[in-house]
From TrEMBL:
Residues 14-143 form the Lipocalin/cytosolic fatty-acid binding domain. PROSITE patterns: LIPOCALIN (PS00213). This is Lipocalin/cytosolic fatty-acid binding domain-containing protein. It comes from Brassica oleracea var. oleracea. GO terms for cellular component: cytoplasm. Pfam families: Lipocalin_2. GO terms for biological process: lipid metabolic process; response to reactive oxygen species.
Length: 176
């Protein structure tokens, strides 16, 4: 007997301006594109004048900042679905090879404080929050967990590592 995966529902009518800003990775399916020993991963999304989104992904490894910059754009500008393509260039210090991926907003809470991001292959999943450490209500946790189950088992979701040696935001003020 085979089990059928639930279809992926994408957020409709995402308010892109409200979505912009800084997001912290709370948990994810480990990605081969993210540094293995990075702590306190976060993403910052400012809106560009042309309607695309600037993407800055950051993490820290051994006290040193690692980052990559790219851009995101709606897959179909006429659609009400929150389906985006994100494009990075590798290596980041010599941007010659574009790497694109899907960035689908699967869940956003009404206050735009928590989000679940995935893509159609279900290989990657990110649970994001506006704060670095989340104290969720049982209702929020259940809703986020339910959205993550679209990907199959949530056993693959790993909490984002955090820096236990200091206050990350203090370090970030000095670009570290």
């Amino acid at each position: 007997m085979t089990t059928q995966k639930k279809g992926m529902e994408v957020v409709k009518d995402l308010d892109l301006e409200r979505y912009m800003g800084r997001w912290y990775e709370i948990a994810s399916f480990p990605s081969i594109f993210q540094p293995k020993n990075g702590v306190d991963p976060r993403a910052t999304y400012p809106l560009n004048p042309d309607g695309t989104v600037h993407v800055l992904n950051e993490t820290w490894n051994g006290g040193k900042r690692a980052f990559i910059q790219g851009s995101a754009y709606k897959t179909d500008p006429k659609s009400d679905e929150a389906k985006f393509k994100v494009k990075f260039y590798v290596p980041p210090f010599l941007p010659i090879i574009p790497v694109t991926g899907d960035y689908w907003v699967l869940y956003i809470d009404p206050d735009y404080q928590h989000a679940v991001i995935g893509q159609p292959s279900r290989s990657y999943l990110w649970i994001l929050s506006r704060t670095a450490h989340v104290e969720k209500t049982a209702e929020q946790e259940a809703r986020i967990s339910e959205e993550a189950k679209v990907f199959g088992t949530v056993a693959h979701v790993h909490p984002a590592p955090d820096d236990t040696k200091g206050i990350w935001w203090f370090k970030s003020m000095f670009g570290k």
